[in-house]
Structure formats: C-alpha cells, structure tokens
C-alpha cells in the first residue's frame, strides 16, 4: 500500500509586483529544509551484527529491511513530549506472523502513531520470533547515518554493539512548488504543498512563516535597539578593550574622534579629555587608558 500523503493549494493574494517570486522562493526553501519531524535513525536486531547479513525465515535481507524502515512515517501523539536531544526507543517482539507491518509497532509504544500502518516492513517465510529495537530521533532535513551526532554519542556512551545506523529523512514535506498569476498591477502567489500526513500543508506553511519571521524580527530588533552600536561593533570587533567597555555612547564618541584602534586611542588620549565634559565618558576613557597604557 502506498504511503498516505495530503496536498493543498494555498493562495496569497494582492502582492506587489515581483514580490510573489521572492516570497514563494523563501517559503519553498524553508519548507523543504527546515520543517522538523521524526525518523528511525538506528535499529538493533537480535543476533544480527551488520546490515549485510540475512535472517533465516525472512525473505528480505537486512539492507532491504532498512530501505523499508526508512519509509515508516511516525507522528507523536503529544507535541509536549518532543525532545530534540532525546532518543526514543521502541522494542518490538513479533512471532507467528506472515508479515511485519508498520502498524505492529504501535502496539509497543504509547508515544507514537504510525501513519502508514499497512506498509510492509518484511515478510516471514516460516514461523520465527524477531526482536527489533527502533531508535527514533527528532530533527530536520536529511542526515546520513555516519553524521547523526545524537546516535553516535549514544552508541559511544552506552557502548552498544551491533547497532545498525540508518540515513534519516526527517522532513514531513514531500514536495513544494509555486507559481504566480498576475492580476492587474498585483500578483497572486499559488503554493502547492504535499506532506506525509504528519501535519497539514497549512500548518507546514505556518511553521515555515514563523521561521522566516524569527530571522526577520532579529534584524528589526537589531535596527530598533542597537542600530548605532551594531555598526560600530563591526569596526571595533578586533580590539580587546571592547569586551570590557562595550558602551554605545563611548563607541560613538570614539568614532567621531576618528579612533579605530588602541594605538590611536593612546595617541589621542589627552585630546579626548578636552573634547568631552561628560563625566561618565571621562571615567570610561580613564579606565581604558589605565588598562592599556603599557
């Protein structure tokens, strides 16, 4: 049975000319790369040492089983239980079955729901017992098995032997495309989002918009609160005294007096005293001079 997917067309109307492609491209990139989800990142099968083995009584070899496991779609019941630093472990024991379906995993966990319950993981050729541990992590995008830091640390810390690591596909987004229709002097942006049914396309769009807003708000807040000091920080970032005297008024004052490094500061130290009557600035200037006069 094919994995369940849901798709939706979302329309953003009355955009200014050329804004459609800018917004559409930004949202598409965030949707594809930055929406988080769950994936099975490793497995441990009793008496199996590596992925190139086969199991007596099972038609598929371990490599084919891994390919099937990568297609299992997991959804957490309660989002409050999400912990990006945690490895969720599900222990599954099966016997006297003709097939191992993804839905069988649900019987061994109260945390996760399996979306594609009828998906076949493996087929039994005779009545045998199989014990599998599934190691599940939460992240975004795609992470190769050898680069999964959380799993690698866990394996090293717990000294786990015969752990078979899996490339993890976390993203719940199956596909995103957009197109623009002109409406007089305005543009309408049409976004088609297809997900794996762990979240709706509208929720995915909401999450991607929140991610963009987070970065835009950082820029806005920087401009509003620290626009002068931010510019000066760039000019002064190499000078040690800044970490002790990172004061907006002082930095503006130094800049106005064409002081860009500690050498210039020492040379113009006396001139600085003449150029200001501000007691607070005078105190800071004296502190800097005493600290770096040698």
Automatic annotation (TrEMBL):
A Gene Ontology cellular-component term: DNA-directed RNA polymerase complex
Keywords: DNA-directed RNA polymerase, Transcription
InterPro entries in the record: DNA-dir_RNA_pol_insert, DNA-dir_RNA_pol_RpoA/D/Rpb3, RBP11-like, RNApol_insert_sf
Biological process annotations from GO: DNA-templated transcription
Gene Ontology MF terms: DNA-directed RNA polymerase activity; protein dimerization activity
Domain DNA-directed RNA polymerase RpoA/D/Rpb3-type residue range list: 7-222
A Pfam family of this chain: RNA_pol_L
Keyword Nucleotide-binding part of the UniProt annotation: no
Transcription in keyword set: yes
UniProt protein name: DNA-directed RNA polymerase RpoA/D/Rpb3-type domain-containing protein
Species of the source: Candidatus Shikimatogenerans sp. Tder
């Amino acid at each position: 049975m094919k994995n369940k997917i849901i798709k939706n067309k979302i329309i953003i109307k009355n955009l200014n000319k050329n804004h459609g492609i800018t917004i559409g491209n930004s949202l598409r990139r965030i949707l594809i790369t930055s929406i988080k989800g769950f994936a099975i990142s490793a497995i441990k099968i009793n008496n199996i040492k590596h992925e190139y083995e086969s199991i007596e009584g099972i038609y598929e070899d371990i490599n084919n089983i891994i390919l099937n496991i990568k297609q299992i779609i997991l959804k957490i019941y309660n989002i409050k239980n999400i912990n990006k630093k945690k490895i969720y472990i599900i222990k599954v024991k099966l016997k006297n079955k003709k097939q191992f379906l993804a839905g069988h995993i649900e019987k061994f966990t109260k945390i996760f729901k399996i979306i594609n319950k009828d998906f076949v993981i493996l087929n039994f050729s005779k009545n045998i017992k199989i014990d599998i541990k599934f190691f599940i992590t939460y992240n975004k995008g795609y992470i190769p098995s050898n680069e999964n830091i959380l799993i690698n640390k866990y394996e090293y810390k717990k000294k786990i032997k015969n752990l078979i690591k899996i490339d993890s596909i976390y993203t719940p987004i199956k596909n995103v495309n957009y197109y623009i229709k002109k409406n007089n002097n305005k543009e309408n942006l049409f976004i088609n989002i297809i997900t794996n049914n762990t979240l709706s396309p509208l929720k995915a769009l909401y999450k991607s918009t929140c991610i963009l807003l987070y970065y835009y708000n950082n820029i806005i807040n920087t401009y509003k609160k620290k626009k002068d000091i931010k510019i000066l920080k760039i000019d002064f970032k190499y000078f040690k005294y800044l970490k002790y005297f990172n004061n907006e008024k002082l930095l503006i004052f130094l800049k106005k007096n064409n002081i860009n490094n500690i050498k210039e500061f020492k040379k113009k130290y006396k001139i600085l005293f003449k150029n200001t009557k501000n007691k607070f600035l005078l105190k800071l200037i004296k502190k800097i001079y005493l600290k770096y006069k040698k």
